[in-house]
Design goal:
The chain has 255 residues and is α/β, with parallel strands linked by helices. Helices cover 50% and strands 14% of the residues.
Length: 255
């Protein structure tokens, strides 16, 4: 059952404004006692109004506005200051990702939940790195969506096991990259030594490297010796592997 598998709208809560500008709907009902206020952003009117109807039928949620356009959404968010923005993050507009970045840039204390077509790693990490607090696939059930909204409102960051695995993988990758940068900053190889090491990675002999660089073979041997001394290694291919691990060289097979 998808997010739109819901009956007709349960409350006539909006005043619609149509014109040359983007379509916007804003609530004019009195707010409940400390509800979770939400702005829904999606360029598909059926999706937008379906989600708004679902959310607005909950006793602890108040949809204060719906918008079809990201720029209009920013204006509405600035004015209404909702607790949560639920925004579409699918291409080509990726409104949720753009809004998350912009809200972070403006320092607005608004949490963003993005909706996407899948929980593929690229989509999820892009949303999280932009500042999103939650991510929901559009094929999620109504209960799933409500669960994410309530969890984000409590200050949690709910994710499915697959999304959690994706995020941990990304964090590990970032940590490894940071470590590589720190290590490479301490390894003071000269540009020429890195060039020689790159040619070693291509399985060239000292003589072939000398011919490629228009230098004497002994000069190449001296470079290789210096590289091994600096890295505290004994073999040239150990040096290649290490340089690849810390990001000095692009990874490629030695065979």
């Amino acid at each position: 059952m998808s997010l739109l598998a819901r009956g007709p709208a349960e409350a006539a809560w909006t005043e619609r404004r149509f014109g040359q500008g983007p379509e916007i709907s804003e609530s004019h009902l009195p707010l409940m006692t400390d509800p979770t206020t939400i702005v829904v952003v999606d360029d598909n009117r059926v999706v937008r109004e379906g989600i708004a109807s679902l959310l607005d039928g909950q006793p602890d949620v108040q949809v204060v506005a719906t918008c079809a356009d990201g720029a209009a959404a920013l204006e509405v968010i600035e004015r209404t200051r909702p607790k949560i923005v639920l925004a579409d993050a699918t291409p080509p507009g990726k409104r949720g990702v753009v809004l998350a970045r912009e809200l972070c840039k403006r320092g607005l204390a608004v949490k963003v939940i993005t909706t996407g077509l899948s929980d593929e790693p690229g989509e999820v990490t892009e949303a999280v790195e932009a500042g999103a607090s939650g991510y929901v696939v559009k094929e999620a059930t109504a209960d799933d969506l409500l669960g994410v909204v309530r969890a984000v409102a409590r200050g949690e960051a709910p994710v499915s096991p697959r999304i959690a695995a994706t995020l941990f993988s990304r964090l590990a990758e970032l940590a490894a990259t940071q470590r590589a940068r720190e290590i490479s900053g301490k390894v003071k190889l000269t540009p020429r030594e890195i060039q020689v090491l790159s040619l070693v990675a291509d399985r060239l002999t000292n003589k072939q490297i000398a011919a490629r660089l228009y230098v004497e073979t002994q000069t190449v041997k001296n470079h290789v010796h210096n590289i091994l001394e600096k890295l505290n290694l004994r073999h040239r291919y150990q040096a290649v592997q290490y340089a690849q691990e810390i990001g000095l060289l692009r990874r490629r097979p030695l065979g």
